[in-house]
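[recover] target loaded
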């Protein structure tokens, strides 16, 4: 557990970074006065690390505009889903050449109408574990149930002409327990009929990168980021960890 390990590191008087064993120790003052890139071996104390809670280290990164953003929480997604549920499903968009549609009304007080569009392959529905579906009017709980059975779930809403993605603050795709997000700044979302090109493939893989590409989405990647402040008797040095 990295968090426990870091706490232990702070309790120790000295932490030794064991890489570059062939190099002698270099003072931090020398490193800060040197030009990059160089390789050093240091002997230093860990003064602080950020963020303090390990889950806060996970961010979303856009490789195109190089932006970093927080991972939205489930409440944000639920709020967007509730908003989209107010838009009635357009019956004229049901049962096209590349997907089959099923609708029903919930038994709760709100009597929500839910529409699920199962993408066909070669005019046939595939096995659930290979199937991509689009859902209108579903709650977060209902969507998570679907992700346990079907390969890909895309939350959508109806327009006059086509189905479209929700606000990009919401994930544009869910696969298993992973939510995939698109960059608001770099994406130019296309209507859902763009997916029909993948459905027409002999063996569609439904890979997130391929789905993002045809839908005009710049895919955000989950990254792990931490900042460490290291000190010795000559000075301090900030070390940054950034990894996919």
């Amino acid at each position: 557990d990295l968090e426990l390990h870091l706490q232990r590191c702070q309790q120790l008087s000295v932490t030794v970074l064991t890489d570059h064993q062939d190099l002698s120790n270099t003072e931090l003052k020398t490193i800060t006065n040197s030009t990059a890139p160089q390789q050093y071996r240091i002997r230093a104390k860990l003064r602080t690390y950020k963020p303090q809670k390990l889950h806060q280290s996970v961010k979303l990164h856009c490789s195109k505009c190089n932006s970093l953003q927080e991972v939205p929480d489930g409440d944000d997604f639920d709020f967007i889903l509730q908003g989209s549920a107010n838009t009635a499903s357009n019956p004229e968009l049901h049962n096209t050449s590349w997907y089959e549609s099923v609708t029903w009304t919930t038994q709760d007080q709100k009597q929500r109408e839910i529409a699920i569009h199962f993408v066909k392959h070669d005019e046939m529905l595939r096995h659930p574990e290979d199937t991509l579906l689009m859902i209108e009017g579903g709650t977060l709980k209902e969507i998570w149930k679907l992700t346990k059975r079907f390969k890909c779930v895309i939350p959508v809403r109806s327009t006059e002409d086509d189905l479209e993605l929700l606000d990009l603050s919401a994930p544009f795709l869910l696969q298993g327990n992973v939510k995939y997000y698109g960059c608001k700044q770099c994406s130019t979302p296309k209507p859902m009929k763009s997916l029909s090109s993948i459905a027409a493939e002999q063996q569609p893989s439904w890979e997130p990168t391929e789905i993002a590409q045809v839908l005009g989405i710049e895919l955000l990647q989950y990254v792990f980021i931490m900042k460490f402040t290291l000190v010795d008797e000559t000075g301090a040095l900030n070390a940054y960890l950034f990894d996919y």
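[recover] notes: Residues 19-64+223-243 form one domain.
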